[in-house]
Amino acid sequence: MKHFALGGVLAIGLAMPVLAQDQITLRLGMQGTEGDPQHQGVVEAARVLEESSDGRITLEIFPNSQLGNFTEMMEQLKLGELDFTLNPFGGMNPWVERAIVADTPYVAQDFEHLQAMIASDWGQSIQDELRSEHGLLIIDDWYFGTRHTTSNAAIESAADFDGMRLRVPNSAPLLSWARAMGASPTPVAFAEVYLALQTNQVDGQENPLPTIDSMGFMEVQSHLALTGHLVQDQAIIASAATWDTLSEEDKALVTAAFEAGGDVNDRVVREREASLIADFEAEGATVTEPDRAALSELMASVYADLDERFGDGTVASLTGLAGD
Question: What stretches pass through the bilayer (predicted)?
Answer without folding.
Answer: none
